[in-house]
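Side project, low priority. Logging it here so it doesn't get lost.
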Amino acid sequence: MTTAPRRRTRWLQWVPLILFVTVVCEIAVIIAIARAIGGWQTLGLLVLCSLIGAWLVRREWSGAWRGLQEALRTGNMPADELADAALVLAGGLLILVPGFITDVLGLLLVLPFTRPVGRRLLQVLVARRVLGVAGSARVVRGERVPPTYRAEPYDQSKDQRADQGPDTPMAPGKPGAIEGKIVRD
């Protein structure tokens, strides 16, 4: 339980540096391309990439949305469809940011033949995050390992439910009540 907030804090510490490096690299690539083909041609290429990316995102979003609706209609778990929708959305945002590096990264997330790699990575990250937040399970080599517990003898003097009277559901001494204490190892 104490490791999840620390992990999030470590990740957030790197975000400003990643954004700064991305902006510097984008400017360097734009200047290099502008020196090679000219300023107006570079601007036209940036606009053309954004238009093609917007068209592609719209097309792939429609497919992802149809897949999500189909999975919900048939009662299947829409894990792949949700991951696809999230990747198309993130890719679309990257394509809308002016720059060639973000366009390439966005296209990798949006294109249907490169998206499965991103989908698998996203599902692993979400599974690790969800299991980490739960705080009771670990992931070892991609498999969820359940927590281990041990039982301790019941101590009625520490139980607050004992003061609530015998009418309390699952009160100690009532049928169905298991007296004991579960302790996480």
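Brief comment: The radius of gyration is 26 Å.
Revisit when time allows.
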